[in-house]
Amino acid sequence: MKRFLITLYLLPDENTIQFVKQLPGLKEIEIDEDYGLIVISPKRNLYVVRVSGDIDPDKLMSIQPKVKGVHTDVKVVPTKFQENREE
Fold first, then answer.
1. Residue 21 has pLDDT above 60, yes or no
2. Residues 6+ apart with CB under 8 A from 26
């Protein structure tokens, strides 16, 4: 199953995972509550959540104006070079 990070514009009284889960376009998607709602820019009211499933980013952004971006959540692992340097 694919995972995505969704960037959201949320006002101070909207910045809860419960608020995000009820938004049209997002309530149909599996939100990773363990990951939570992460602030990425407090001055610009930008947050990110991680979701799983098949998502059409353009459709999601057209349904929900609070969504400002949809990005693939890439798993980062050490390279062989990094592992050799640690030894």
1. yes
2. 6, 20, 49, 51, 60, 64, 67
Q: CB–CB of 71/7 below 8 Å?
A: yes
Tokens of 75: 């798993």
Inter-residue contact 51 to 4 (CB < 8 Å)? yes
Residue 86: how many other CB atoms lie within 10 Å: 6
Task: Name the token pair of 57.
Answer: 């980013």
| Tokens of residue 41, six digits | 């820019």
CB 72 within 8 A of CB 7: no
Q: What pLDDT digit, counting tens, does each position of 25-82 carry?
A: 998 899 999 999 999 999 999 999 999 988 899 999 999 999 999 999 987 777 776 5
Count CB neighbours of 51 within 10 A.
20
Closest Cα to residue 17, out of 48, 60, 57? 48
Q: What is the DSSP letter of 37?
A: -
